[in-house]
Design goal:
The complex is a heterodimer of chains A (334) and B (217). With 334 residues, chain A is of the alpha+beta class. Among the domains of chain A are: 5-56, 2-Layer Sandwich (Uridine Diphospho-n-acetylenolpyruvylglucosamine Reductase, domain 2); 231-331, CO dehydrogenase flavoprotein, C-terminal domain (Enolase-like, domain 1, 2-Layer Sandwich). In chain A, 27% of the residues lie in helices and 20% in strands. Chain A has twelve helices and twelve strands. In chain A, a hairpin with a 6-residue loop joins strand 11 and strand 12 (276-277). By secondary structure, chain B is of the alpha+beta class. Chain B has a five-stranded mixed sheet, with helices on both faces. Chain B starts with a helix and ends with a helix. The relative contact order of chain B is 0.10. The chains are: A alpha+beta (334), B alpha+beta (217). Chains A and B meet through strand 1, helix 2 and helix 6 of A and strand 4, helix 8 and helix 9 of B.
């Protein structure tokens, strides 16, 4: 690990001012915020991340979960994954979020990992994690070893010829169907970004993963009030029963009235280069009956543009079945 | 020295070991290894001149104050020092183990402010003032914690390397919203890998403590 300078930020302005001096907020940033450290320290040990300065943001006043007057919820960036998943309002109104978080990692890691940090979780692509291999995400222009290599766990949606790395987060998939908003404070002031616009497709700049600029601090995430009468669910398929990344997962929020779907939100995990919301699937479901045929049409629509690699063709069918099963479960009579 | 002769000497020097504990056995084994290569080892006396001290202790060390098992420690460390390395190498609390060093195996699990975490994925300098508890803080051989005693009585280990991490997780689990069944325990313990495969007995040890806890005193 490269030597770095460690400083503790005591307020948001101080943190932002320190990080604003960084050349980039993306891969290779020389100044980094550190919260739970579960991704960053892991990657620093591998010399994939080599910051010269770490700004400890654990003591910033961003650790609260607050009810909003419009019935929504505000989640501080420093709220730990465990606290968010077990929060009574989250368990009652945003079940998909609680289930998604609890399906990821372990109790120890969830006790450390934060909401803001999980939004920035890095890919588990083995070539990204190995500095001996080419990787356009880690070292722009060096090539992609995954396309011709071991790509069983990687993405089939949103890929480019430069990068097929999958976004590993479960929490992000739930935030996508809950239509979360990411609140950012930076050197130029405050702004809000819908979750769908927060992560970037790899295109020809896979090292740019989010819209964050140097000094940008995620302060909190807001969720709109739950859709009246809706039910939600997260279903994750993986190689092991616990402590494993998704091969395919589905987050769904569905409202039904007399057997008919009146509103649907669908996102897929484990298959996309970013948290993969599927307006195509939502379109197939809305105003249709809650039946298996409809679910299958929605799944076909969600995976229509899938581009499987040499080893992950199975993910197309797996993701479809995952979505169909999730929709069946969520529309079952209570 | 012939191979035969050397073997004989080794077995003689090991002859008093039957009554040893594993810890003394391993440490004596280390010493035996030291004497076997006595020449080169003793030629490398610890260098104390200021030049070499400077090279092994970079100028970038920072002062920290850690509270471990109720005791306060003031020390200077390299900011790269993980909490695990700090506990083991600086404070000589070697109960917490280094397995994968990437937060995947759980052997390094400690409690920070009452919550279990992977000490290998934590920089010690970020936990100035926090309450840290290690396996040494749960109990001692003559005064085991209920979970330590349950691991012993249920034979919940084989080689023992993962055990302190397992016990730290299991102890934390008692206060976590874990469901009542074995499958719930397995899910809550999935961050602690046991290569010997003592899982069945680990689950029974944990369940025995939970069931006793629920009984009226």
């Amino acid at each position: 690990m490269k030597i770095f300078q460690l400083t503790r930020a005591n307020d948001n302005a101080q943190a932002i001012a320190s990080a604003a001096k960084a050349k980039t907020a993306q891969q290779g940033a020389d100044i980094r915020f550190i919260a739970g450290g579960t991704t960053l320290i892991d990657l620093m040990k591998l010399n994939v991340e080599t910051p010269q300065k770490l700004v400890d943001v654990n003591h910033l006043p961003l650790g609260n979960i607050d009810n909003l007057t419009d019935g929504g919820l505000s989640i501080g960036a420093m709220v730990r994954n465990s606290d968010l998943a077990h929060h009574p309002v989250v368990q009652k109104n945003y079940r998909v979020l609680s289930e998604a978080i609890l399906s990821g990692a372990t109790v120890q890691l969830r006790n450390m990992a934060t909401t803001g940090g999980n939004l920035l979780q890095r890919t588990r692509c083995m070539y990204f994690r190995d500095t001996a291999m080419p990787c356009n995400k880690r070292e722009p222009g060096s090539g992609c070893a995954a396309i011709t290599g071991v790509n069983r766990g990687l993405a089939i949606l949103g890929t480019s010829e430069h990068c097929i790395a999958s976004n590993p987060s479960d929490m992000n998939i739930a935030l996508a169907v809950l239509e979360a908003t990411i609140h950012i404070r930076g050197p130029k002031g405050e702004r809000s970004v819908p979750i769908g616009d927060f992560h970037l497709l790899p295109g020809n700049t896979p090292h740019r993963e989010t819209v964050l600029e140097p000094g940008d601090l995620i302060t909190h995430v807001t969720l709109p009030a739950p859709a009246p009468g809706s039910r939600s669910l997260y279903l994750k398929l993986r190689d092991r029963a616990s402590y494993e990344f998704a091969l395919a997962s589905a987050a769904v929020v569905v409202t039904t009235a007399s057997g008919k779907i009146t509103r649907a939100r669908v996102a897929l995990g484990g298959v996309g280069t970013k948290p993969w919301r599927s307006p195509e699937a939502e379109g197939e479901l809305t105003n249709q009956s809650a039946s298996e045929d409809v679910f299958k049409r929605a799944a076909d629509a969600a995976l229509r543009d899938a581009k499987p690699q040499s080893q992950n063709g199975f993910k197309v069918e797996l993701a479809k079945r995952c979505l169909v099963h999730a929709l069946k479960l969520v529309t079952q009579p209570a | 020295m012939s191979e035969e002769k050397r073997e004989e000497e080794t077995s003689e020097s090991l002859s008093g070991f039957e009554t040893s504990t594993r810890r003394t056995f391993l440490s004596r084994l280390g010493m035996a290894g030291l004497f076997a290569s006595a020449g080169p080892v003793f030629a490398q006396q610890p260098r104390t001149d200021s030049k070499s001290a400077g090279s092994s202790m970079p100028k970038d060390t920072i002062p920290i104050s850690l509270k471990v098992n109720g005791k306060k420690y003031d020390l200077r460390i390299d900011p790269r020092t993980t909490l695990l390395d700090c506990l083991r190498e600086h404070l000589h609390l070697t109960g917490s183990k280094k397995g994968c060093d990437h937060g995947q195996c759980g052997a390094c699990t400690v409690h920070i402010n009452g919550r279990r975490m992977n000490s290998c994925l934590i920089f010690a300098a970020m936990h100035d003032g926090d309450e840290i508890t290690t396996i040494e803080g749960l109990g001692q051989p003559e005064n085991l914690s209920p979970m330590q005693a349950a691991f012993l009585s249920h034979d919940a280990y084989q080689c023992g390397y993962c055990t302190s991490g397992q016990i730290m997780s299991a102890t934390a689990l008692l206060k976590e919203p874990c469901g009542p069944d074995d499958t719930d325990v397995k899910e809550y313990m999935s961050g602690n890998i046991c290569r010997c495969g003592a899982y069945a007995n680990i689950v029974s040890a944990i369940q025995s403590v939970r069931q006793n806890k629920d009984k009226p005193a």
